[in-house]
Amino acid sequence: MYNKTKNLGYVDVLILGGGMAAMLAAIEADSNGVDVCMVSKKKIGRSGASVVSKAVHRFAPQEKQDKQSYKQNLISSGRYINDTSLVDVLVEKGAKSVEELALINKNLNFKYKTIKGDKYKNFATTKPKQGKHLCHPVLKHLIRKTGVRFLEGYMAVDLISHKNKVCGAILEKGNELFIIRAKSVVLATGGGGKIYSETSNTNDLTGDGYAIAKRSNVSIRDMEFVQFYPYRICEPKEHDIFPGIFEKGAKLLNKNGERFMNKYPKRELENRDILAKEMFKHAESYLDLSGCDLTYLQEECNDLYNIFMNNKGRKYKIKPVAHYFMGGVIQKPDGKTSMKGLFSCGEVSGGIHGANRLGGNALTELAVFGPIVGQNAAHFAIKNQIQSTDIRNIFLKQIPDIGKSHLLNFENRLRKVMWENVGIVRSMTSLSEAESVVNDLLLEIETIKPNNLKNWLELYNMIEVSKLVIKSSKYRRESRGSYYNEDFPSEKDIWLGHISYNNNGNLNFVKN
């Protein structure tokens, strides 16, 4: 048990995370004249999902009727359980927020939609479509134009709070624990795709923010909804596909050479949950580029073009992978959570996408809510004092001393059972089997002395998040959006609502 912590001092706004959401929140908070510090396990600007994304932003054009249509598409895709107050903010502020991001990142190029003879922006990306070209200019701005401090290589372990008001955080680095106090804290830790053996996520996305929120009794929702990205080549080389290629002649075929998405109006561009389930049914899926516009491919998807040119005559096997958590910390439109002084933004937050996320909206969400949260966290810090309270953290008592035990076997067992039993298609039996394995793993790791504390903390968080996903899945007795349970294969109106963990840690269903 750890009983020693080192003091890292005080800060006005503490931001936990190092990706796009965290950076945009930090820039905005700093502009309000407060002292800001960012904490990241990896290098800031080089961590999380944004840096490996396709840098695509989709948003509603600044035209009233089209905004309403865009909102309806978001809610329909989310199967009508989205938090409409968050959807309203995303739709209303999306275009302007991406335009403001383009003032920092000159790499963003816009596309337009013509409505009644006028042109409106509705899409933006970098060229080439690579997340590093999105994140690095923002990082440069952060370093050159702000006074934000970086704590890189530090892992957020838990929150410090007093009477449901945040006071700071416990951090880990080099097998040591540290305390940093703050007037306000922003959770921007990203998702938790690493709980699955097959994922598009980077290896730092271990669900830390979800686990921290749960331990602090911060309200969480929709954890049963995990999106499985259906556009990833796994052979001859791993590579994520930009879906736009299917508008230019690319097709998906099964092992018999049949285009299995022909029965759907949008074919390969159907909602990701539908496409992932169809691919699961067909067991093997292949990308056919024979009819694709090669000029488009070279200009818009140069990496894929090079793979195609270097592997002519080969089959391109494609499979869905764990990609995005629709669920997460319950946030209000101003970024507030159920704990005073604690704000959240990015994938760690839940509610906006409902049961399934439309492609291109995740990065727009960061552009919208990152600055909103940064501003409101700064305003909270200006109005409040740092709470001086003794550190009485229950989780500290569970953290083991350092020893010699390796954790890779435990991690592999967890990720395997989550992929096989809590993946694209689930059942009550598969969920119960997974729950048993996950509970056993928790008991096992609580009795060992690991050779690396960060690895133990990440594994503990992954187990906590896995339990949240399993429990929420068992609670929902229907299929909706990205969640498919073969024992309850259809949607039911009585389940039109969200499952949440409230402030006392209980599971509740909140009907729309």
From TrEMBL:
Catalysis: reaction(s): L-aspartate + O2 = iminosuccinate + H2O2
Required cofactor(s): FAD
Keywords noted in UniProt: FAD, Flavoprotein, Oxidoreductase, Pyridine nucleotide biosynthesis
Keyword presence, Transcription regulation: no
GO BP: NAD+ biosynthetic process
Pfam families with a match to the protein in the record: FAD_binding_2, Succ_DH_flav_C
Residues making up the signal peptide according to the UniProt record: none
Pathway entry: Cofactor biosynthesis; NAD(+) biosynthesis; iminoaspartate from L-aspartate (oxidase route): step 1/1
Statement: the UniProt record of this protein carries the keyword RNA-binding: no
Active site: R272 (proton acceptor)
Span of domain Fumarate reductase/succinate dehydrogenase flavoprotein-like C-terminal: 412-501
Enzyme Commission designation: 1.4.3.16
Highest taxon in the source lineage: Bacteria
Listed GO MF terms: L-aspartate oxidase activity; steroid dehydrogenase activity, acting on the CH-CH group of donors
Enzyme class, spelled out: oxidoreductase
Ranges where the FAD-dependent oxidoreductase 2 FAD-binding domain occurs: 12-363
Family the entry assigns: Belongs to the FAD-dependent oxidoreductase 2 family. NadB subfamily.
Stated name of the protein: L-aspartate oxidase
Organism (species): Proteinivorax hydrogeniformans
